[in-house]
Every structure is written in structure tokens, then in C-alpha cells.
Amino acid sequence: MVVSATTHPTLLDYTKRQDPDKSIATIVETLSQTNEVLEDMVHIEGNQETGHRTTIRSGLPAPTWRKLYGGVQPSKSETVQVTDTIGMMEAYAEVDKQLADLNGNTAAFRMSEDMAHIEGMNQEFTRTLFYGDEGTDVEEFTGFRARFNDTRTSAQNHTNILMGDDYGGDALSGNDNTSIWLVVWGPNTCHGIYSKGSQMGLSKDDKGQVTIEDTSSNGGGRMEAYRTHYKWCTGLSVRDWRYVVRMQVETADLTESVDNLDIVEMMSDACELVPSLSMGRASFYCNRKAKQFLRKQFVSKVKQSTLGMDDIGGRSTLVFDGIPIRKVDSLIETESPVIQA
To answer: Residue 211: which of 226, 224, 201 has the closest Cα?
Structure first.
């Protein structure tokens, strides 16, 4: 299967086009090393300062079989509007000026210290992308789980939630489950959003030398420091839910000693649920444990017709039916089960 790439840029694509200052590009490349979803996730500028309003077609016009000399009633499609919120994540990195200058390369030392803040933002972004819910945490944006968490027929997208017990796995009951996601990123399927008129992705503002209070000392003394401000305004828009599939399994099923779960059939069904994989950039996302399980199946030549290795972006990548399988450590092993009928 050949999955065509969308013409809209990912965050990494965008920053690589910038010059002459490569500092932001360096940061994003570092993020992508620990957050593989950034290599696929398409971003589009929102049509609002704090969100993005999408018009979704919810019904098609009905045609009419006409007899000779018979009339045809005009009809129209039905649409609904959905507004996705953009969350604002910020961090300040401060290092002691004296310590940074002793290094001999102040800029390099500051960046080495800033990387901890960047990694923290990276992990928080990924967690929110999958588990964010502005219904319980109003400052966040709503991620995938809150949108795909109900298998009852009253939920419009219930067909795109697959459960492991339907594929030979254990029944989902306690908080010991994990999910594998199939997402097709594209402007008409599913994409990231950023505030109207703002910069895409992580922005960096070097505040230079500042005087700060040393709160650790009894007298509240002052010290000279270098300060960097990081800001990331982002959100998620699922324009067409048919291009996202959630597969939830009991974590214990992803072990070498357990062979009841037919995860290959499950992933095959997920691919068939998507109307067209060529509508964007398709990828599977799973945690380390699930990927190890899939890799062992490949090494053991189990279902070798669908699992394999491919060269993507100069790297050897585990693929399923030509679709890359990305590792996302933020996908936890202690999920509660989806809502069931």
C-alpha cells in the first residue's frame, strides 16, 4: 500500500524552511526525536484567535427517481459547525549568569539547561494530544481519547472504536488498558491548529540578562540570570472522525506469552474503516510495550505479509501494510476502558 503525503507541512517541515536563524529548527528536531507524532501531524492556522471553527457535512441531499413529466423536489445537504479550542502552554527557563559564563560558551550552556524545559513541554503536549479534555481541565485542548471513548450506538463515531476482546483478547474492565491509534493527518481529515495570526509551533523569546529573586535564601536576595520564554499555542481539529480509529486492548495481552489477541486482524480492520488512506499522512501510534510486541511478531515472521520494515525518511521503520508505526511513550498502560453498551 502506498500512502500519499499531504501537501500541508508538519511542524518539522515548517521550521526547516526558515532561515537564517536555525535555533527553533534545532528545537523542533529535538522534539521529534522523542515525540514521533510531530513527524506526521499537519498544522493549519485557525480561523479564530482562540480556536478553529469547522463546518462538517452531517447529511447528504437525497436524489429523486423521476418519471416522465414528473417533478423533482429540490434538496440540500445538512451541516454542523464545531469549534475546537486552542490551548496555551508556556515555560520560563532561567540559569545563573555566572554559571553560564564560566562554561566559555554561554549560548550552548543555556540551551543544554533549556532542554529540560523543552522536553517537559514536549511530554505535556503529547499527553494532551491523546488525553486532554477541556471538560475537566479548561486550560487544555481536547485530545483524541475524549472524542473516541464511547462504543454505544448513540455515539456517531462508535464504529471507529475497536476493542481487544472482540479479537481474542481479555475483556476490558479495570484500569489496565492501552490504546493503539490509526490517524490520517490532512487538512480535510484531522490536523493540528494554531492561533490565527500567530506562529506555528513552539516559539522562543530570549529575554537576555535579568535580575531575579533568590527565593531559596532567607532574605530573598537577588541574582543575575539569563531567561528564555517558551510558548506553544496549539490544538486539535478532527474534521472527519472516519479518519481516526482507536484500538483499545488490555495491556497484559501485549506479552510474548499471550497469543490470544489477534492484533494484526485488529489493525487490518482499522485500515478498512478509513474511507481512503490516501487522503493524508497515515500512521499508527502506540506505546513502547505495544511496539515491542509488534516487532517480536515481525521477527518471528508472524503475519509477515502485513508487518515489515521500510525505509522512511532515511530510517528503518516498522510498518503495517505500508503504514508507519510510531512510538509514543505518552500513551499509558493504565487507561480506563471505553464506555460500553
So the answer is: 224
- Is the model more confident about 52 or about 184? 184
Residue predicted with more confidence, 139 or 200: 139
Burial of 189-205, coded b for 16+ CB within 10 Å and e otherwise, reads: bbbbbbbeebebbbebe
**Rounded-to-10 torsion of CA 32, 38, 44, 48:** -90
Neighbours of 41 (CB within 10 A): 21
Q: Which set of grid coordinates corresponds to residue 59? A: 447529511
Task: Kindly indicate the confidence band of residue 306, based on its pLDDT and cuts at 50, 70 and 90.
Answer: confident
Which are the contacts of 13, defined by CB distance < 8 A and separation ≥ 6?
none
DSSP 124-176: HHHHHHHH--TTT-TTSPP-HHHHS-B-STTSTTGGGEEEGGGGT-PPP-SS-
Spell out the domain ranges in the chain: 11-57+81-327
CA 114 to chain centre: 23
| d(C-alpha 60, C-alpha 82), whole Å | 18
Q: What is the pTM of this model?
A: 0.82
pLDDT tens digits, 8-24: 555 555 455 444 454 54
Is 245 in contact with 181 (CB distance < 8 Å)? yes
Separation between Cα atoms, residue 235 and residue 129, nearest integer Å: 8
